[in-house]
């Protein structure tokens, strides 16, 4: 595949699937990804399963016993997938991913439910988004339904041992990734690509701290960016490519030195100070308008600056369904909200905080799930964000409960 049209951020899932179909139909000799061809070679040396919330968990190095690898070549398309023992990759020093950032990935989780079942959460969205990301960096598309089947086959092998039924309420982090690994050193799309899938125990960043460290106060403290920008209109901020992440690490480390958990990435910092994302998470603000209505606001997708997060989309879907007038889900401090996707500026946040109109803020994502925000440092002034009961805003707590119930099987829901 040597050319494509970058899909619209407002229809990432549908366009990713359609681009894959169009490409394959125009190249009948090219094989699509086919889960039915998966071969399985089981390991003879099992890896130790770390204890919950242990140092091994927090090291995020303890991958499961197996991994999946699928090769793509320019002349044949997708080869047969292989499930094999976990181990190192071998690539040439001239590989495209090492020089031209032809690399993308996904982040998702598999959950051990309280009913004993293993569940993925909306995996169709992650698989389709990986197609969108791959196209943005000139990697080949595939049928996302087949990737979902391969993920399930992988978890049928490693899930029972690494997420035993004796540990309900636990999860593994899944990392499907694609790299251009052909040998040619040239400024062009790679002629060979590797898709691989890993699973690793992951700490619960929304509730716990590393072993031996003092307990953290509830809520994240965010440091608003000043000079650095994570993404820009028309760029690739809407995709999960490595080039979105590595350049942000310097700002992240500087923020932590100053006592902040994440960077709140702003755009157009000379004037508007537009709020985009918090670290690698989507950002939500709940506030009162001057007319007295409650709004839940998050940045829009149309400028291709932010990621169409699966947790973000789920928050929006649940809020639009349940946080409405007359809903049986409303009680106590939780009233109806207007769900708004629009550009939000820190000048507006600063003004609302000064006028006492802020209700709460939180971040959403696979890593941090739903985590409340307690403070934002903007222009070297710390703005306190209300925290409801002192540990979380009421909306964040309720959304976290709803999503957790779906993920762990406490309620029957199509997303689980």
From TrEMBL:
<dbReference type="InterPro" id="IPR005786">
    <property type="entry name" value="B_amino_transII"/>
</dbReference>
<keyword id="KW-0808">Transferase</keyword>
<dbReference type="InterPro" id="IPR001544">
    <property type="entry name" value="Aminotrans_IV"/>
</dbReference>
<keyword id="KW-0663">Pyridoxal phosphate</keyword>
<dbReference type="GO" id="GO:0005739">
    <property type="term" value="C:mitochondrion"/>
</dbReference>
<protein>
    <recommendedName>
        <fullName>Branched-chain-amino-acid aminotransferase</fullName>
        <ecNumber>2.6.1.42</ecNumber>
    </recommendedName>
</protein>
<dbReference type="InterPro" id="IPR018300">
    <property type="entry name" value="Aminotrans_IV_CS"/>
</dbReference>
<keyword id="KW-0100">Branched-chain amino acid biosynthesis</keyword>
<dbReference type="Pfam" id="PF01063">
    <property type="entry name" value="Aminotran_4"/>
</dbReference>
<dbReference type="InterPro" id="IPR036038">
    <property type="entry name" value="Aminotransferase-like"/>
</dbReference>
<dbReference type="InterPro" id="IPR043131">
    <property type="entry name" value="BCAT-like_N"/>
</dbReference>
<keyword id="KW-0028">Amino-acid biosynthesis</keyword>
<comment type="similarity">
    <text>Belongs to the class-IV pyridoxal-phosphate-dependent aminotransferase family.</text>
</comment>
<dbReference type="InterPro" id="IPR043132">
    <property type="entry name" value="BCAT-like_C"/>
</dbReference>
<dbReference type="GO" id="GO:0009099">
    <property type="term" value="P:L-valine biosynthetic process"/>
</dbReference>
<dbReference type="GO" id="GO:0004084">
    <property type="term" value="F:branched-chain-amino-acid transaminase activity"/>
</dbReference>
<dbReference type="GO" id="GO:0009098">
    <property type="term" value="P:L-leucine biosynthetic process"/>
</dbReference>
<feature type="modified residue" description="N6-(pyridoxal phosphate)lysine">
    <location>
        <position position="240"/>
    </location>
</feature>
<keyword id="KW-0032">Aminotransferase</keyword>
């Amino acid at each position: 595949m040597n050319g494509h049209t970058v899909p619209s951020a407002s229809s990432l899932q549908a366009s990713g699937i359609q681009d894959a179909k169009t490409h394959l139909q125009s190249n009948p000799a090219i094989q699509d990804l086919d889960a039915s061809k998966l071969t399985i070679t089981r390991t003879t040396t099992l890896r130790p399963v770390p204890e919950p919330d242990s140092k091994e968990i927090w090291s995020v190095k303890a991958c499961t016993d197996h991994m999946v690898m699928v090769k793509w070549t320019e002349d044949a398309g997708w080869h047969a997938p292989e499930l094999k023992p976990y181990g190192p990759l071998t690539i040439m020093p001239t590989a495209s991913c090492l020089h031209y950032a032809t690399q993308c990935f996904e982040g998702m989780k598999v959950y051990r439910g309280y009913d004993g079942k293993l569940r993925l959460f909306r995996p169709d969205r992650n698989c389709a988004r990986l197609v969108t990301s791959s196209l943005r960096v000139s990697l080949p598309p595939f049928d996302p339904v087949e990737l979902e089947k391969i993920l399930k086959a992988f978890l049928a092998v490693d899930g029972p041992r690494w997420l035993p039924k004796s540990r309900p309420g636990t999860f593994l982090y899944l990392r499907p990734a694609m790299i251009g690994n052909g040998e040619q050193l040239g400024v062009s799309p790679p002629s060979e690509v590797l898709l691989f899938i890993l699973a690793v125990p992951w700490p619960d960043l929304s509730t716990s701290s590393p072993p031996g460290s003092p307990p953290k106060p509830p809520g994240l403290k965010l440091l608003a960016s000043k000079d650095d920008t994570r993404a820009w209109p028309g760029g690739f901020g809407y995709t999960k490519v490595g080039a979105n992440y590595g350049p942000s690490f310097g700002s992240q480390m500087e923020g932590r030195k100053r006592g902040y958990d994440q960077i709140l990435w702003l755009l157009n910092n000379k004037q508007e100070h537009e709020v985009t994302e918090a670290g690698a998470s989507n950002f939500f603000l709940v506030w009162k308008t001057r007319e007295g209505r409650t709004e839940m606001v998050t940045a829009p997708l149309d400028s291709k600056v932010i990621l169409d997060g699966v947790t973000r989309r789920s928050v929006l879907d649940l809020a639009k369904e349940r946080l409405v007038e007359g809903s049986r889900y409303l009680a106590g401090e939780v009233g109806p909200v207007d769900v708004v996707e629009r550009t939000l500026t820190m000048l507006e946040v600063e003004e609302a905080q000064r006028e006492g109109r802020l209700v709460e803020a939180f971040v959403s994502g696979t890593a941090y799930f739903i985590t409340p925000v307690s403070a934002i440092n903007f222009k070297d002034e710390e703005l306190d964000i209300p925290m409801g009961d002192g540990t979380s805003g009421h909306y964040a707590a309720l959304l976290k409960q709803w999503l957790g119930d779906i993920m762990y099987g406490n309620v029957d829901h199509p997303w689980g």
